[in-house]
Design a protein that fits this description.
The complex is a heterodimer of chains A (131) and B (572). By secondary structure, chain A is α/β, with parallel strands linked by helices. Helices cover 40% and strands 23% of the residues of chain A. Chain A is globular. Residues 1-5 of chain A have low confidence and may be disordered. The termini of chain B are far apart. In chain B, α7 (178-192) links the parallel β5 and β6 (200-202). Chain B is mainly alpha-helical. The chains are: A alpha/beta (131), B mainly alpha (572).
């Protein structure tokens, strides 16, 4: 999956929060840990869906990670996935934050690969991104 | 604080203890740290208080207020219960609040019926906070979800109709949207015929608040002007209003150690004071109307020591640095909040225990208010049951434990007094560092505050990841309960209702009046941007005119973001 171009290239991950969100403590920690694990991290703070999609394309990332503290992910995630699909961009999509358990099957069905809720060991995220 | 003879005697006792434990194989485990990383000993003695004179401790109700501002215990005057109630539309919020009032919620716990005051601590949903009305594309999927949807005068009417505004303390949690919310409320009161000088308002004035998580609507170079603007207006027109929150909660949630929290929040207070003096305001007049909103951690004694240290430093700063003569200026009323970041999703009911311990810490620390969070906040905004338990937490502590009978019960504890002085010492050092780094605003613009906090946040999470710190049910004693689903959701159709309502509201307005008011508001904002401090005093009246013309939160805050801020997607 993704656009891994040979062994020499580092895994590229784009990390973003929704424009309508708050509290970046978690995603900043993930950004640092992934960077230390040898991942190329592009962290773009709070963005609207169109920006996230465009940057994912421009930066040709292998993984997209988004954190949601507040609601609205049920709308943002499909919007971004559909836009990426329309451009023929394949990537691994991980989501963190306050995601209700009953939304998990729905998100997985539309193409979210991993959901890391509060309390997830950070090594699970590193393993998902790096392998 | 103690005579030499006593100190010598204690020293001998401590030496005996040292000899005894020296034989223990596990003695390295005696070296512990507080949650904030301060190294601590297994016990404390008078010998640890050499640097803490009796005048530093004092008695309750007297300078330097280490032991609090109260002359009588909580059992006589109660404490405030200030957690927010906010969900869905105004009517949902109101119904929840009225349910909780039936269970005995009032502003002051323990007050008799005759003096009863209501509290309306309204957290806005994320789109309202960011200045998007419910029908803006950005609001999709978010209306009423993380708080109350508040966009137009009908929402305010529904929240407050029939309520005695002179007996209701009102607060709007919307840091970047504070001016529009307050202006709307003032216009609502005016239409009800309630004079502004009778209104009980808590003005948050948190123009710097969202910088802590890097999501602010306005950059430092303009945002700080909103502080004096608010203070000047509310001191003049709403004399019993509190005019500025000095938050330690936000740095705390971002990762601050207790000494960082104390230093950063005091630096904020000093900066706001200096800026307000520059526009001609008198600190003896406005500083008594500041209030604190501090962070409460599960390290109970450290939390108590932190609140005590901050009170003492506040008293010294406003007496010595600003020369305040008004004794009320030397007292920072504090309305702390139990830490959201310390609540866990795994086995969420365990959070009831965590919140209880934090609420108890607030009481033992002599806070003016207790904010007990709902245990399910890591899953959703509070369910009714969880909000009820949070209310009950405060009531049980007040009525069933007897802690309300004695002021500052931990005062004089060798450990707590030592830790109070230690946090104070570290916080003074940090205040000096802030000065050396070019002062408060510069520490935001350079990113210094944020990088210091991010470092501490990282240390904290690493200590959980490497199991140096145990979080029960999270990184140890873990059980698999499967995915946790939200325990509460707002009514279906809430968003559609809000969309239709704001559209209907706009349709019946006098559009010329709206356009004119928005033009004037834009001019006032441009003026604030271009000529400060001369323009101080122009913005708030223009904002009030906008709500007299029935503008919406989205329209007014959108303009603020467009002119003073980083831009506003809703207007492109």
């Amino acid at each position: 999956m993704g656009t891994m171009a040979g062994n020499s290239r580092k895994v590229r991950v784009l990390l973003a929060k929704s424009d309508q969100d708050a509290h970046d403590r978690g995603i900043r920690y993930i950004a640092e840990v992934l960077r230390d694990a040898g991942v190329e991290v592009i962290f773009i703070r709070y963005r609207i869906c169109e920006e996230v999609t465009e940057i994912a394309l421009q930066e040709d990332v292998d993984v997209l990670g988004m954190g949601f503290y507040s609601s609205g992910y049920e709308f943002d995630i499909p919007t971004i996935l559909e836009a990426l699909k329309a451009k023929g961009k394949a990537l691994k999509f991980m989501v963190g934050g306050i995601i209700s358990g009953d939304e998990v099957p729905k998100l997985k069905a539309i193409g979210v690969d991993a959901i890391f809720g509060p309390g997830t060991p950070t090594e699970d995220v590193v393993r998902f991104v790096a392998h | 604080m103690f005579e030499d003879a006593i100190l010598a005697q204690v020293k001998l006792m401590v030496e005996t203890w040292e000899r005894k434990v020296a034989k223990r194989k596990d003695k390295s485990k005696l070296k512990c740290k507080t949650a904030g990383g301060i190294p601590i000993k297994p016990f404390y003695t008078p010998g640890d208080l050499a640097g803490t004179g009796q005048s530093e401790v004092g008695i309750p109700g007297q300078f330097p207020y280490t032991r609090g501002f109260r002359e009588v215990p909580y059992s006589l005057e109660g404490w405030m219960m200030r957690q927010p109630v906010a969900l869905g539309l105004s009517k949902d919020t109101r119904a929840r609040m009225e349910y909780l009032e039936k269970l005995g919620w009032q502003l002051f716990i323990g007050e008799d019926e005759a003096n009863r005051l209501h509290v309306q601590n309204i957290a806005l949903d994320i789109c309202s906070q960011q200045g998007y009305d419910p029908d803006a594309p950005e609001a999709r999927g978010r209306v009423g979800r993380d708080g109350t949807s508040l966009s137009n005068m009908w929402d305010f009417e529904e929240l407050y109709e029939g309520k005695d505004l002179t007996k209701t303390e009102v607060f709007f949690a919307s840091p970047d949207g504070q001016l529009p919310c307050l202006a709307a409320y003032l216009v609502y009161a005016e239409r009800r015929g309630v004079p502004w000088d009778k209104l009980r308002l808590k003005v948050s004035n948190l123009w710097y608040h969202s910088w802590y998580w890097d999501a602010a609507g306005y950059p430092p170079k303009h945002a700080y002007k909103l502080g004096p603007e608010c203070i000047a207006f509310f001191r003049k027109h709403v004399p019993i209003a509190q005019v500025a929150s000095v938050t330690g909660y936000s740095p705390g949630e971002t990762g601050a150690t207790p000494s960082q929290e104390v230093a950063f929040s005091l630096a904020t207070a000093m900066f706001i004071t200096e800026e307000a003096i520059k526009v001609g305001l008198d600190p003896d007049d406005f500083v008594p109307h500041f209030y604190g909103h501090d962070h409460t951690s599960l390290d109970l004694f450290e939390t108590v020591a932190k609140f005590r240290a901050k009170r003492r430093m506040w008293a010294k700063i406003f007496r010595d640095k600003f020369g305040c003569q008004n004794p009320m200026a030397l007292r920072l009323r504090n309305f702390p909040q139990t830490a959201g970041s310390l609540l866990q999703r795994n086995e969420p009911e365990n959070n009831i225990v965590r919140v209880t311990l934090m609420a108890l810490a607030q009481v033992l620390a002599g806070a003016d208010g207790v904010w007990a969070a709902s245990f399910d906040e890591c899953l959703n905004i509070p369910s009714q049951r969880a909000a009820q338990i949070a209310l009950r937490t405060g009531q049980i502590i007040f009525y069933e434990t007897n802690v309300a009978n004695v002021i500052d019960p931990l005062g004089g504890s060798y450990y707590v007094e030592w830790l109070t002085s230690e946090i104070e010492r570290r916080a003074w050092e940090l205040l000096n560092t802030i000065e050396e780094k070019g002062g408060y605003l510069n520490c935001w613009e350079s990113g210094w505050f944020r990088s210091e906090l991010a470092r501490e946040a990282r240390k904290w999470q690493e200590s959980i990841d490497n199991k140096e710190r145990t979080i029960v049910g999270v990184n140890d004693f873990v059980i698999d309960e499967g995915e946790m689903s939200a325990l509460f959701r707002i009514r279906k159709g809430t968003e559609q209702e809000a969309v239709e309502r704001v559209r209907a509201f706009r349709a019946r307005r006098d559009h010329e009046k709206v356009e004119l008011a928005l033009r004037r508001l834009r001019a006032a904002l441009e003026d604030m941007k271009a000529s400060w401090p001369e323009a101080c005093g122009n913005l708030m009246p223009a904002m009030i005119e906008a709500f007299r013309a029935d503008c919406t939160i989205g329209e007014t805050q959108g303009l603020m973001k467009e002119v003073l801020g980083y831009g506003y997607y809703g207007r492109q």
